[in-house]
Amino acid sequence: MSGKFLLGLIGDTMQRIYSDGKDGLGENLPKDWATPGKILNYRCPKRVVKLINKVRSTTDKQEQVPRPTACDGFVRLFILPSDMAEKPEAERAIAAYMADITGDEKWTQPREIKTLTLEHRMAASRLGFLDAFIALYTHESWRTSFLEGTLPVFRFFSEQVLPLVRAKQAGDRFAVARIAKTYSPLLSQEALRQSKDNKLLLQNVSKAVDGLLELWKDDAIPSLLEVLQFVASVNLLEIPEALKPHASGTIEAAAENTSVANELEDRQTERDIAIQAFLNTPFSQIEPMTEYLSGKAHFDTHQGVKGLEFERVMVIMDDSEARGFMFKYEDLFGGKPSGDKTVEATKRLFYVTASRAEKSLVLVAYTSSAERVKSFVLTQGWFEPEEVILDLSNAAALPAN
């Protein structure tokens, strides 16, 4: 069918990070087939293009060139102990260092940095919603809908309670009225039809919202359970079916009755256990979790940013914290020979993350063998000696390129 049928295969096999799909795609094609390549890199600065060319040189040997107007850019690799305490503090210090060597003050503004972690838990820990996240994420049948932000147990708080609380705290009466009209049974069509005094209905809604805000009085930090049970007690919002037993307190009351404790444990489902754990966390964790799951946070996963670009990128590589099995940076950095499936998958993931940067890139490798990692990256020619930093305390004294 030559001349009559045209098949185009477009993609970068270096960014194939999962094991599914067709192996060897693009190999052993007919000799008369054209094989165009994407030579010009429009995104990255010169230094990043040099790095990613080195990374893929042992894979497919394809090279890109930066656009003529590309800036030089900055790349740094910090190698730190995997068992060190206060990793977020170290990462803030690294960001401050990057601001110093680049002259870019936006490195001191967390929202101006895209920080990439291997696993959602790592971001949850750094953003302050780990407890609430784990409670729902560990219930496997909910995982997909939870990460997509569509799980009713989560959406009740993220789409109804949180906006209502924020609107009231901001003194936005119109937003409060809009949310109540949309979600509150107190202002449902049926309630309005049956009411002889609509003004009284509005007053009841106002009192209910005021009572809800009392949970934060004197800088108190209410739990999700406290918020849920108050909302249910005044009928302010429609409670999802899965939350109704918790809203009424029937599960908690039974748990306190030692005579039925064993029976309760037998009847209690994994779902109820997950919900209980979730409701026992502070309401304050809902806002950062909502922001993260909606893609608005400055954190994302290594796997989730293919095709995207950011001016400032920090890549956190920490196998011990990620607890994954598909990607192992310790294996990539000299632990296993090239060609190993895990090594090759991790190398491609490394390539994906590094190639997101438009101006400057810092990579943070937590490891049990700092010297081995340093030796590997220098031997491979990925970094220059002055770009590899092992001692965070001396970072400010190191020269910039």
Automatic annotation (TrEMBL):
It comes from the Bacteria. This is Uncharacterized protein.
